[in-house]
Amino acid sequence: MKSQVVTFLIKCPDQKGLVAKITNFFFEKGFNILSCQQYVNSIEDTYFMRVRLNADGTNITKTELENSFLELAQPLQFSWSVNYGDKKQNVAIMVSHTSHNLYDLLERSKEGRLNCNVKMVISNHDKLRNIAEMFGIPFYYLPVTKETKLAQESQVIELLDSNEIDLVIMARYMQILSSYFINHYPERIINIHHSFLPAFQGADPYKKAYERGVKLIGATAHYATEDLDEGPIIEQDVKPVTHESTPTTLKRIGADIEKLVLARAVKCHLNHQIIVSGNRAIVFPEAGE
Amino acid sequence: MKSQVVTFLIKCPDQKGLVAKITNFFFEKGFNILSCQQYVNSIEDTYFMRVRLNADGTNITKTELENSFLELAQPLQFSWSVNYGDKKQNVAIMVSHTSHNLYDLLERSKEGRLNCNVKMVISNHDKLRNIAEMFGIPFYYLPVTKETKLAQESQVIELLDSNEIDLVIMARYMQILSSYFINHYPERIINIHHSFLPAFQGADPYKKAYERGVKLIGATAHYATEDLDEGPIIEQDVKPVTHESTPTTLKRIGADIEKLVLARAVKCHLNHQIIVSGNRAIVFPEAGE
Amino acid sequence: MKSQVVTFLIKCPDQKGLVAKITNFFFEKGFNILSCQQYVNSIEDTYFMRVRLNADGTNITKTELENSFLELAQPLQFSWSVNYGDKKQNVAIMVSHTSHNLYDLLERSKEGRLNCNVKMVISNHDKLRNIAEMFGIPFYYLPVTKETKLAQESQVIELLDSNEIDLVIMARYMQILSSYFINHYPERIINIHHSFLPAFQGADPYKKAYERGVKLIGATAHYATEDLDEGPIIEQDVKPVTHESTPTTLKRIGADIEKLVLARAVKCHLNHQIIVSGNRAIVFPEAGE
Amino acid sequence: MKSQVVTFLIKCPDQKGLVAKITNFFFEKGFNILSCQQYVNSIEDTYFMRVRLNADGTNITKTELENSFLELAQPLQFSWSVNYGDKKQNVAIMVSHTSHNLYDLLERSKEGRLNCNVKMVISNHDKLRNIAEMFGIPFYYLPVTKETKLAQESQVIELLDSNEIDLVIMARYMQILSSYFINHYPERIINIHHSFLPAFQGADPYKKAYERGVKLIGATAHYATEDLDEGPIIEQDVKPVTHESTPTTLKRIGADIEKLVLARAVKCHLNHQIIVSGNRAIVFPEAGE
Predict the structure, then answer these.
(1) Which residues of chain B have a pLDDT value below 50?
(2) What is the distance in angstroms between the Cα of C130 and the nearest Cα belonging to chain D?
(3) Measuring CA to CA, which of A41, B28, B35, D207 is 20 to 30 A from D25?
(4) Catalytic residues per the record (chains A, B, C, D) (predicted)?
């Protein structure tokens, strides 16, 4: 594990002594604690922790570490996961017609600003093929109709699974996914919605925003769940607008918000900053990373 | 009219030559045009204009001006209003328990940062009396129950009308007003709602925001209409929050947003910057004012 | 001129009747005024106007229009320019090592979100060649040393002039241009500086920002003038940061601000929204465009 | 110490095992750790920690706690402080002519939104006396001239010291304090400067902002040090502005930023969220407080 940053995400019932017990555990195993972030939800009496470790001072193996940790974890009722930072996550991007999020994600990935391998772009339209090709990423055109929906989803799932995709990014993929699909990748599908949810769920949020005369528009990145636009929110942002904006102008202004919001959310996910709790996403900030 | 700033607000079907015709009219009457702002809604083919005039170069009377203007306005189907800036508007503030908006409005008014006379504070609770008294503003305690609602509203209306109130500010007045009341003061009641509408309409928006796990909270100032929290939006703002915030913390963070949003909306109204069109508020920015 | 949007930018001493005279002029020539924006600088008694016209109702030629307008303009001492929207402007992008602004501008241009022809990318390093090539844009590698500076600038000027470049974008071109170069393209070179000017002028602003412990970082797009980082500011933005950020993190966070700020500034320039007055840039907002 | 929130602030050279050692210490003494926040400055190899403890499970006395803690602190070279939350801090507000910050601080304090006792308002002008009196706070009018500067400062110091003032807030006190005064209250004087420092240090920042044509204005709250406007920055914010704003308008817009920035900085200080390190202020966010 030398030279690796090991990240533990922990959730458990709140109780006295947690931080001491957990940090002691890692200290005794010879780890250097790079950062240790906590959140106590006092309404639900739940404790959340993100610990980042440097493994340079220890010879422990992954199996030994995990077995030891289990002994700590079980009596304290931890839900937990660990990432060893030893392999980049595989990402698939799903799109339809809209190009701005795709460009942005591919550029960030190519320039090393997103820590992942974009393995493929999947679309129900052939329109954005040239963008994937510019960046040398395989593009799969899988059209979909009401009738072929389940069959197309099976094709998508096969693609994702055979490529060992860790994260699916719906970068303006304008199709509603089936429950089966969604539940196949729990907390592993991130969607961008082009409004400041819960306002303007569903279709045409910019048109609705115009009609409602709002003075700001926004975007929301969230984990996809069975309930459309209802999943745990990872990131949101807005920008002020005036009466001058038509739905078309709002769409243009919104594109820049969508890009930033989705990229930030994906970065937090890839960086193991997120613990989902019910319908809320606990998103720890970067800690000197 | 010497030394006065005269403001015309105009709405009409869009057509060629409007700005030339209108500005010519004022130029020929001897006015100096301080600013002239337009908005064309090309979806509804509607034209909106706000003109601010300096009357120093003319001896025309108000009646002459308005009669002349009517001749221009009728064939072009103007809806219009004019304000001569010769008297401060009378304002009533309605509150319940929450003090931050009240303090803020009274301070701004006292320090000359809101161009109005706050004539009274009306509340269904006695709690904030001391604040009104600190600022030397009459405080009317008019408690309300389900049974006495209409009677209490009649008392309020009487107070407002006998004091020639031009604008009613609902500064966290936690009562739903009757249609009769609302329609008695069309486009003359401004309400502050403690969420970024249309998200979290109705009661307890901060609790709902916590439960939905949103990453920003906000406030919305709008004209009150019969449909609760559905009136034309004048001003909105938001602030980022994290999972750390409880409903109580959100309430505290939100208070600062509410203060600014309501104060800005009231200023725009008092300054004749707003034309309402359907459910949208056209809010012209200040023009060197 | 049919189907074109004609834009006039006017600056003159303030005087009574300007808006009436100017809008009348265009009305009488048969133009439809799409928007008419004004700004009066009452400190310097100067008047600024941006008028957008639809030429569908007129058969006037450009020469006739300009000759007629001159008769209006001269007695009123107008500085003015007109654009007929009939040809896209030619743009050159200058870069060094940093790629994020280049990607962003090329993407926007390719996707039709920036109304221009990017004719070339010029760099003193060969590093970003592949990005230009991805987008099919000619890339010129013109290295520079202290000794070859003037010679290299001559090469650049020749490239720009022979390609009839209308706008030069310094998208993190980390060289100080000579006065000769700068003055060759007055108000036609836009630079992005990676701080919220006038804070942190000169080199290494993110390092300075870290050392000063500021709680926000930003970026500034401005016209290049002889005084480094002192030219008229077109657009600025900032983002909150915390003590957690190292100079490296600030650089990464700043990249997203730089992209948006430069793109917005370029858009305003290409869209004829800017009038420079002394060291201030009057930037009219879009008007239903 | 029952029912109290005890807050430790610690700074020391970075080294392995710090979080485990410190949290263990408190766990063994019977404290419940409410929150534990860290920051590692890897450039200077320095470690910072803020720990909040609930003392309900322990009978330890303050002296015992501090003596024990010293044994931990000395070998690890801690700089540290502890606050027991058992008495409200005493605050003095210094003002000149400008009222908005004073109103805001007095309102927040009165309404329980700032955890302190405002013991007095001190001014070199008599103008704002009525505001202090509205809120029932003693007002000291201590005029100052070049000649009487040191004498006046002595009077101020006597007032502050005899009232056991913990924090001095310069809420637009437009006098430069002597080094003697400043050094008498290290990290205990917070000043609000009406620009986004380090831009526009010194006098008349809004005039300078107008002349420089910046597209945003701001405010900065910092600890006062001998170097004017150079002290550690606690909080900053900005707001976009346009060319329309005169210095007077900027002043008005800026007032709202100044209020929020100063109030937030004071809250962080009173809440023991700040550790100063050189010229940088480490400001921990609230942790579920």
Answers:
(1) none
(2) 34
(3) A41
(4) 229
Residue B256 known to be catalytic: no
Do A271 and A152 share a domain, yes or no? yes
Distances (CA, A) of A252 to A99, A100, A218, C113, C289: 12, 10, 12, 8, 11
Instruction: Compute the distance between CA of residue D218 and CA of residue C265 in angstroms, rounded to an integer.
Output: 21
Domain that includes residue B175, residue range: 89-283
- Contacting A with CB below 8 Å, chain C residues are 99-100, 103, 107, 111, 113, 134-135, 242, 244, 246, 249, 252, 255-256, 260, 263, 285-289
Pick the residue of B215, B220, B235, B276 with the most A CBs within 10 A to test the interface with A by mutation. Answer: B215
Which phi and psi (to 5°) does residue A75 adopt?
-60, -25
Decide if A238 and B234 are in contact by the 8 Å CB cutoff: no
One domain for residues D45 and D142: no
* CATH number of the domain enclosing C68: 3.30.70.260
If asked whether residues C27 and C124 sit together in one domain, one would say no
Q: In chain C, how long is the greatest CA-to-CA distance?
A: 63
Asked whether the beta carbons of residue C233 and residue D244 sit closer than 8 angstroms, the reply is no
Whether C170 and C193 map to the same domain: the answer is yes
B–C interface: beta-carbon pairs under 8 A: 56
Strands of chain C, DSSP E = 5-13, 32-41, 46-54, 79-83, 89-95, 116-123, 139-141, 167-170, 189-193, 216-223, 233-240, 274-277, 280-283
CA distance to B83, B140, C248, D247, per residue, from B88 (Å): 11, 22, 55, 25
Q: How many domains does chain C have?
A: 2
Q: Which positions in chain D touch C243 (Cβ < 8 Å)?
A: 39, 280-283
This prediction has a pTM of: 0.97
Give the Cα separation of A204 and A247 in Å (integer).
9
Residues D159 and D217 reside in one and the same domain? yes
B205: cis peptide before it, omega within 30°? no
Q: Is C274 left (phi over 0), alpha (psi -120 to 50) or beta?
A: beta
Q: Decide: B169 and B234 in contact? Cβ < 8 Å.
A: no
Predicted confidence (pLDDT) at residue C2 exceeds the cutoff of 90:
no
pLDDT digits (tens, 9 = 90+) for D89-107: 999 999 999 999 999 999 9
Whether D52 and D124 map to the same domain: the answer is: no
- Chain A residues touching B42 at Cβ < 8 A: 246
> Per-residue pLDDT for A3 more than 80?
no
For C261, nearest residue in chain A (alpha carbons):
A256
Contact A103 C113 (CB under 8 A): no
Chains with 3 or more CB pairs closer than 8 angstroms to B?
A, C, D
Taking an 8 Å cut-off on Cβ atoms, the answer to whether A23 and D26 are in contact is no
Instruction: Indicate whether this complex's ipTM tops 0.85.
Output: yes
